[in-house]
Amino acid sequence: MGANNGKQSGSEGKGSSSISSDLSSSTDQTSTKALKNAATSEDSDLSMRTVSTPSPALILPPCSPGVLNGSSTSSSTFGTETIAMVHTPPTSLTHPQRSLRQPRDQQGAPIDILPDHAFLQIFTHLPTNQLCRCARVCRRWYNLAWDPRLWRSIRLTGDVLHVDRALRVLTRRLCQDTPNVCLTLETVVVSSCRRLTDRGLYTVAQCCPELRRLEVAGCYNVSNEAVFEVVSRCPNLEHLDVSGCSKVTCISLTRDVSFKLSPLHGQQISIRYLDMTDCFALEDEGLHTIAAHCTQLTHLYLRRCVRLTDEGLRFLVIYCPSVRELSVSDCRFISDFGLREIAKLEGRLRYLSIAHCGRITDVGVRYIAKYCNRLRYLNARGCEGLTDHGVEHLAKNCLKLKSLDIGKCPLVSDAGLEQLALNSFNLKRLSLKSCESITGRGLQVVAANCFDLQLLNVQDCDVPLEALRFVKRHCKCCVIEHTNPAFF
């Protein structure tokens, strides 16, 4: 590679290798041949980036016959991408209790005075790649950076990240004290790592039995088989985000695990939070399987799962009676019959989003208002079949409603707002964006009765300036989103 050659162990033994990052930002020219070799070699580089630091990378160069055992301190840069090495622990020692009587030029840095517990407290706030960098400073920092208490979570992101290899190297290092098993890791977040494949998830499944949270949002190369492997090998998994994983059509145990378990417990998965937003291939049959296996679900998000119908919601309510938050936004086949099924969740439902479900009318909203009287949040934006009658049912039955979005509902007028204002005293957020029938009179009634209003969206509404000023006077803590240039 185009970096200064360093010494590196020829093997990646668990006790002899570590992961570190170099903050190099130079733009030295690298030969075309070296770049080509680095780009085409499958195991030549391993980039690591996080949300807070999007550019750092972790790269593992192939071992050459001439490299001897020892620590590597070399680094190089491809453009603005930072490169780090997998190397042995630093040979330099840093003593925290270095005598202060030594000459100034022989004393260590002032930070060396800090005790170990102070370092650990600082390290807890660092993202994964920064923590790896700290392991390269000196032997003391190396030992502290790999303290198991700091590795309850791994968070990586980036389009160019070689995330499969990153997970393999990290889990291998974390399994040093407990061979093949990492008992401390509970959270893995690799959202937007588009190079993640099933291989990376297999690594997590095999090495992290205590995993509780997994987020692979936007990783469209992940398939059902890898997800099945994770949920089967990680019995404590509670939070799963596979949004944007278009190949994921179901959540289930593997066949082998199902056969080994008893019929009574073989279908149980402990997932409580499941986000399958933009899983376009999800159908009613897949939702049926999910509901049958994940009976403890409390939060389920199915935004833009465009193939779902009312039948899928029927299965969901039968198997998952504890659902508290549900989103079926932009599911165009969901109708009033689907809301009738959702209403069977009754007082347990707190959050519901049915935005842009064009087949929903006052009939379906009436079911929700009648049976789900503890509803706190409702998003019905774009439900053009909703009228003042539906809003009236909500206002009179859902007295604990705190957030309501009825934007782009052209049939909702001042009459509906008056009923809302006279009954929903706990309302804090109200969106009326693009409601053509709303006037200043309706807004004034809302402002005069909903004193706790914190957010009001009246963008693209034909309301006079005086009405906006009236809202501002009566709801002093309210943020008004508007498109009237004269109001500020």
From TrEMBL:
**What gene makes this protein?**
LOC109078112
Instruction: Fetch the InterPro entries from UniProt.
Output: F-box-like_dom_sf, F-box_dom, FBXL15_LRR, Leu-rich_rpt_Cys-con_subtyp, LRR_dom_sf
The UniProt entry, under SMART domains, shows: FBOX, LRR_CC
Q: Using the record's annotation, list all stretches that form the F-box domain.
A: 108-154
Task: Quote the Gene3D superfamilies the UniProt record gives.
Answer: 1.20.1280.50, Ribonuclease Inhibitor
Q: Where in the cell is it found?
A: Cytoplasm, Cytoskeleton, Microtubule organizing center, Centrosome
Question: What is this protein's record name?
Answer: F-box/LRR-repeat protein 7
Species of origin: Cyprinus carpio
CDD domains, per the entry: F-box_FBXL7 (cd22120)
Q: Name one Pfam family in it.
A: F-box-like
